[in-house]
């Protein structure tokens, strides 16, 4: 992945005109999130980095949270594209590839990942439709892997697989204070964990657990 220019140099390196103001602010927000985290900047900071006046962002975003929601929505869309491409392999290979694609996305796109899950946008009423589509893809893949279309079984398995995948991704991202020192190969851990979940779940459900 190509290195991005330092945040402090962005405004000097790029000139934005009125026609792409929204895109400029989104890009500025991504840079600021990557450097400071979702809570570490203001709308004025994004405007300054984009090289526009402090009032300019309000043409597109009513506040910082609405800008974060936009970034999160784009992140879910980008993640969905990766998951769909991985799933295209089909079968067990495609299912495993989806998990590794999720881990790679968290590693490659830390700003998107933080906006999607750590910005306080997850519980509001404007959840991106892409988020639901991503989970729908996971449910379909889980159903194929289990060989069942029972809604409760598929839903339970999908939640467990997502929890494992998201947990490993969050532990693996650069700067995670909770990352174990010996977390060498998250992809291998994910493959083993998902295998254990899917093979043990039918017995657990049958036992009423």
Overall morphology: elongated
Largest sheet: none
Strand runs, count: 0
User: From N to C, what is the helix and strand string?
Assistant: HHHHHHHHH
Annotated CATH architecture of the largest domain = Orthogonal Bundle
- Residues in helix, %: 55-70%
Assigned CATH class of the largest domain: Mainly Alpha
Quick check: average pLDDT?
Answer: 83
CATH superfamily of the largest domain: Tetracycline Repressor, domain 2
Structural classification:
mainly alpha
Q: Termini separation (Å)?
A: 44 Å
Instruction: Count up the helices.
Output: 9
Provide the number of structural domains: 2
How much β-strand is present in the residues? under 5%
- Gyration radius over CA: 19 Å
Which consecutive residue ranges, at least 5 long each, have pLDDT under 50? Answer: 11-16
CATH fold description of the largest domain: Tetracycline Repressor, domain 2
Domain HTH tetR-type: 19-79
Keywords: DNA-binding, Transcription, Transcription regulation
Pfam family, one: TetR_N
GO molecular function, one term: transcription cis-regulatory region binding
């Amino acid at each position: 992945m190509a290195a991005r220019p330092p945040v402090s140099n962005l405004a000097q390196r790029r000139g934005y005109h009125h026609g792409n103001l929204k895109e400029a602010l989104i890009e500025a927000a991504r840079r600021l999130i990557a450097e400071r985290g979702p809570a570490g900047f203001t709308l004025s900071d994004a405007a300054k980095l984009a090289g526009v006046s402090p009032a300019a962002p309000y043409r597109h975003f009513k506040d910082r949270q609405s800008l974060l929601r936009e970034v999160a929505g784009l992140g879910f869309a980008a993640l969905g594209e990766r998951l769909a491409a991985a799933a295209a392999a089909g079968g067990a290979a495609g299912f495993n590839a989806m998990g590794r694609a999720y881990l790679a996305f968290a590693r490659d796109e830390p700003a998107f990942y933080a906006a999607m899950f750590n910005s306080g946008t997850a519980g509001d009423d404007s959840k991106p439709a892409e988020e639901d589509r991503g989970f729908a893809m996971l449910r379909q893949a889980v159903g194929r892997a289990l060989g069942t279309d029972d809604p409760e079984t598929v839903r339970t398995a999908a939640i467990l697989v997502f929890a494992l995948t998201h947990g490993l991704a969050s532990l693996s991202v650069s700067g995670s204070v909770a990352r174990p020192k010996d977390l060498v190969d998250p992809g291998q851990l994910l493959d083993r964990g998902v295998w254990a979940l899917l093979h043990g779940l039918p017995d657990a459900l049958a036992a009423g657990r």
